[in-house]
Design goal:
- With 199 residues, this protein is an all-alpha fold.
- Helices cover 80% and strands 0% of the residues.
- It has one domain: Na+/H+ antiporter like fold (Up-down Bundle).
- The chain is globular and about 45 Å long.
Length: 199
């Protein structure tokens, strides 16, 4: 990551900023959600799943290759670039304790009936997330990792843990209603599966 610090920071930053702004504005201006609900949607749909990225890189044997190190570096660039010990602690705590709790708690609050009733909204929000991720990541990835630009973009387009956590926070705080929460969590889960399968 030290060798590609500028590239990692720019791609990682835009990987968050483009979908955050895009989803926030879409939810506020097009869907008419409250400002706070739209901001939570922006956060939920902008994050990249470290768990998914790491799992894909390990399963494909890419963790020790230049592209694997670069993509993993992108996913960690925003938070952990100065604190390697924090990365180890975060992984232990998040995967062992917090992740199952949030998935169980979040999953129990998802209404499949409301997801089905809002299927069009689900497709729109998934498209907003993916289009803004691609717009933010692909041009820079094509410049700095041209052979693996789409692979990098797809992995950076995944979401899961923090998208679920932020959605659950919004629901528990009364900022999101059950329909908004159910759709957001379903979009987050779909973003963990679909881009990963394609990648």
């Amino acid at each position: 990551m030290q060798e590609k610090f500028k590239e990692s920071l720019l791609i990682g930053g835009l990987s968050f900023a483009a979908p955050f702004v895009g989803a926030w504005l879409f939810c506020a201006w097009v869907l008419g959600w409250s400002t706070t609900a739209a901001q939570i949607a922006g956060v939920a749909l902008s994050t990249t799943s470290l768990a998914v990225v790491y799992a894909v890189l390990v399963e494909t044997g890419l963790t020790l290759t230049p592209i694997g190190a670069f993509v993993l570096g992108l996913a960690l660039a925003r938070i952990f670039h100065e604190h390697p010990e924090l990365t180890r602690r975060f992984r232990v705590v998040a995967f062992a304790l917090l992740t199952p709790f949030f998935f169980l708690k979040g999953g129990m609050n998802v209404s499949l009936k409301l997801v089905w009733a809002n299927l069009g909204l689900l497709v729109l929000l998934f498209a907003v997330k993916q289009v803004t991720k691609i717009a933010g990541v692909y041009p820079l990835a094509r410049r700095w990792v041209p052979v693996n630009a789409m692979f990098t973009t797809l992995l950076m387009s995944t979401g899961l843990t923090f998208g679920t956590i932020s959605s659950l926070y919004g629901f528990n705080a009364g900022i999101l209603d059950r329909a908004q929460f159910s759709v957001l969590v379903t979009v987050v889960v779909a973003s963990a599966v679909i881009p990963t399968v394609i990648a």
